[in-house]
């Protein structure tokens, strides 16, 4: 993810639900370019933040081995525009996760106010297209750590989510080469 529309995860239950937060900051360039003189967070970027939250929830279900991409926005209703200083909380519920994709619903809140209601479909990229790697494994592992998924994440039995072994092995091999 070159652009991050999530600052951190605050809840993560494997295969079921995730909650993340995004602080809308005046330092973000897109706020000044969308409507000159009226800094605001475009709803399309809110959808992307929700998609990043839901996409990681779906990807974790398969140990981050599947390449998950947003396939369809089937519903997006927004009640107001977020502005600098607002903290958005994205709450995503997974309804159906399958080998070929997933369906999630989500809400976005600013404090106690309902900001948005979104439904998304995700697809998995073709397994035979192995030439295209979306992310470097070690960089992706560092991103997951930075977003605090392993700090707050729980499996359905309540045990903590751990970094996948294959990621740790790639990281260890890379560190041993330095």
From TrEMBL:
Which Pfam family, giving just one, matches this sequence?
A: FabA
Q: What is this protein called?
A: Beta-hydroxyacyl-ACP dehydratase
Record InterPro entries:
FabA_FabZ, HotDog_dom_sf
Q: Which key words tag this protein in UniProt?
A: Lyase
Q: Specify whether Protein transport is a keyword of the entry.
A: no
Where does the record locate the signal sequence feature?
A: none
Instruction: Report whether Disulfide bond shows up as a keyword of the record.
Output: no
Membrane-spanning intervals of the chain: none
Q: Name one GO molecular function term.
A: lyase activity
């Amino acid at each position: 993810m070159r652009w991050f529309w999530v600052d951190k995860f605050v809840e993560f239950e494997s295969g079921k639900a995730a909650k993340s937060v995004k602080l809308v900051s005046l330092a973000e360039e897109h706020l000044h370019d969308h409507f000159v003189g009226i800094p605001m967070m475009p709803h399309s970027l809110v959808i992307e933040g929700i998609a990043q939250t839901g996409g990681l929830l779906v990807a974790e279900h398969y140990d981050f081995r599947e390449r998950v991409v947003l396939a369809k926005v089937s519903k997006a209703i927004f009640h107001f525009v977020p502005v600098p200083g607002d903290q958005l909380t994205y709450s995503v519920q997974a309804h159906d996760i399958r080998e070929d994709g997933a369906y999630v619903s989500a809400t976005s809140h600013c404090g106690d106010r309902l900001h948005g209601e979104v439904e998304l479909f995700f697809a998995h990229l073709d397994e035979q297209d192995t030439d295209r790697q979306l992310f470097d494994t070690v960089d992706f592992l560092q991103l997951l750590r930075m977003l605090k998924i392993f700090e707050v994440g729980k499996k359905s039995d309540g045990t903590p989510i751990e970094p996948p072994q294959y990621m740790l092995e790639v990281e260890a091999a890379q560190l041993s080469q330095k």
